[in-house]
Amino acid sequence: MIGLDTNILVAYAILEHPDHGNVRDRIDQFQLEGHRLAVTSGILAEFVHVVTDSRRFENPLTMAEALGWAAFWSDAEEVTIISTEFAAHRLWLLWLEQHRLGRKRLLDTLIAATWASAGIREVFTLNPADFKIFDAFTIHNVN
User: CA-CA distance, 66 to 1, in Å (whole number)?
Assistant: First the structure.
């Protein structure tokens, strides 16, 4: 199973995103290879927040469009929604302390801990540095 970072979902949905085509091609490739994909509720919440922000995009999505995309990812047969269980919560706190991470790394660390606790060892992201620090994942990017 491959964890999809928020920035991947954003690039997939936003036509003006510079990696839109590459991300779609790579997800198609993962599916052809038979990989399952994983997201968390936190990723979907962050996705809705980002894609509706007019300061980030010339043509942001409406809330209804963003929620439609969140439902698309939630309902897709090849996607698993991973819940944050207690083990992930404990790992999140451990990693924050162990790596001396601050408030700007809270959500990425929670996502990483959730994936790791669920046995996910591969991540597709546009920001590999967000996850390399944990030394727990094989990281895929668009290159």
Answer: 24
Compute φ and ψ for 82, nearest 5 degrees: -100, 125
DSSP for residue 126: S
Q: For residue 110, what are its two tokens?
A: 């929670």
Q: Tell me the domains of the chain and their CATH numbers.
A: 2-140 (3.40.50.1010)
CA torsion, ordered 37, 113, 121, 80, to nearest 10 deg: -20
**Mean of the per-residue pLDDT values of the chain:** 94
**Percent of the chain predicted with pLDDT > 90:** 94
Q: pLDDT by residue (tens digit) across 17-48?
A: 999 999 999 999 999 999 999 999 999 999 99
